[in-house]
């Protein structure tokens, strides 16, 4: 076995050290960006290769003092700052004044008519027993994604006369103009600019269609098809971002600035996640940024992940014993960009552990093994390889004795093995404490984000499980994480078909044992718009001819589809009551969920697969409005006077000598007064109510009457 070690940097991140090596070999900034973008958070900005970081600001931090010719400060949310550093001057990232912690920005991986019925959005759109129909009007939905078709009629109004894209920021396109306050990308802020641009820039995902599909679910008009989205009169803010956490944080701030200028509420949807860019317990910098924005009213919704059908996780409680488990690899033949597997390991605060790997034959017999690498003593980064006969296994290891954000010991082991005659297995040991491990595929383009199994290769070895599948940023506290189930629909004879959990929908909890997902929504074969500029293949579910071109809809499955459904429902809630906080919107989504034969009884804190159950838009809206639903069993003869009134309303029932309850609601359907009387006569004191029109529902003896009065 030969080993080549790398000096420990001040910033302990394996990718940063590798990037410094590449920058030393490639003097051309454009070529360096082309060679590294996707695998690293690099972008070609104003003639330079700039690297994204997130940092924790100290008291007194000054963006003006921190910025210089090689360091560019982006946005700030609470104590979290996004910034970019010239790839040829990465040493300056270690010397920024006013920063207590800095990390390389993590990189992201990233049918409708039935969905509306399943989520009860159809009743909201029709305004059944509501003050009005709700459609998301005057609410902005931000989509952080890739593959936007700005010309698709699904993103127009229902009359197909004007686009509902309020603004778009293509962070890849460097021709400008950039948004005010940001030094990169191109902003389109008028309908003519948006339509002239047509589509966002091809990137590591090529000309994708994912963003258009997601936007259509959240708020597509349907363009004359049955595939109308949840909030079909909302407006969109579309951000094609640079595949790193610093860039997406900038997108949040850009969206919030526009929402504040327009005096509108904002919902941000994200359909991406990773298991190794943060702490998985709500303490990461990106989670802190999201929590801070939620505190000022932004509602965040995120897909919960698609690893529910793979045993890619291990939870091991040590008692001085040793864990051994084979690391399953994705097929190198299946993807030309396949690099290897990434195994992330988190221990408990104050309880160090040791880890390494074994090389075995296909029969499970151990042929050789690496040394033990201990979290308390291991250098921050090790780049090495092991030779086994004619085969070589390459690996690198990132280590933290106590991560600065949560105090937990951490290892990330990246392993490359192209041989078919040997296998690689994880080994770990500790005197005590609980260790969590995740096995995720890694591509050279860094687009891989799917789990692969841990396998017990012999007696005493450990098999993986599918638990703890909630990644960053879905693990964030003040964010709605959404799982997926198959849409329900009525058969020709009126029975309900479908509704089972999607096999791919990730299990909770989070690393710190919080219940996630928060809710579930339809995410199987959801039909929505697809970008007409995509070079990806897809099946067509519907077509629309518009302004001389044909536009398409397609069906896709994933929690990427269930998340925007909930985001659109959040927009409906905010239209009904714009005063709600982000926490109140999340509570409404959770507290009004429905259950059925598939969810079973949901525990009081939620289910690790279903969250609080299936999202129910109608119940959420009626709850937001304070509307009390009363079954109509019979009618009452009731008198109400004077009308109009200024102070008092008298109510009298005819022919009923029984207690009665009077419920007064305003024209928005909010309950403003509710009072019980032990007779068939009542006096309502309405002096404190604002002038306007009100409805009073009178209930007695399982019957009811409804009347209106005007308060002067």
Number of strands: 38
Broad CATH class of the largest domain: Alpha Beta
Tally of discrete structural domains? 4
Share in helix:
10-25%
Number of helices: 12
Radius of gyration: 28 Å
Reported for the largest beta sheet, the result is:
8 strands, mixed
CATH architect. name of the largest domain: 3-Layer(aba) Sandwich
Strand content: 25-35%
Low-confidence stretches: 1-10
Q: Look at the helices and sheets and give the structural class.
A: alpha+beta
CATH superfamily of the largest domain, please? Peptidase S8/S53 domain
Per the principal axes of the C-alpha atoms, what is the gross shape?
globular
Average pLDDT works out at: 89
Strand arrangement in the largest pleated sheet:
9-8-10-7-11-12-25-28
CATH topology group of the largest domain = Rossmann fold
Task: Give the N-terminus to C-terminus distance in angstroms.
Answer: 89 Å
Layout of helices and strands:
Elements: E1 3-4, H1 14-25, H2 29-36, E2 42-45, E3 48-57, H3 63-66, E4 71-77, E5 80-86, E6 99-104, H4 112-118, H5 121-126, E7 139-145, E8 165-170, E9 186-188, H6 191-197, H7 210-219, E10 235-240, H8 245-262, E11 265-270, H9 285-295, E12 299-303, E13 313-318, E14 322-327, E15 338-346, E16 354-361, E17 366-369, E18 373-374, E19 381-388, E20 391-400, E21 410-416, E22 422-429, E23 433-443, E24 454-455, E25 480-485, E26 489-490, E27 496-497, E28 519-522, E29 526-530, E30 542-546, E31 549-556, H10 559-576, H11 582-591, H12 617-625, E32 638-641, E33 648-653, E34 660-665, E35 671-677, E36 681-685, E37 692-700, E38 703-711
Parallel strand pairs: 7-10, 7-11, 8-10, 11-12, 12-25, 25-28
Antiparallel strand pairs: 1-19, 2-3, 3-5, 3-6, 4-5, 8-9, 13-23, 14-22, 14-24, 15-21, 15-23, 16-17, 16-18, 16-22, 19-20, 20-21, 26-27, 29-31, 30-31, 32-33, 33-36, 34-35, 34-37, 37-38
Helix pairs in contact: 7-10, 8-9, 10-12, 11-12
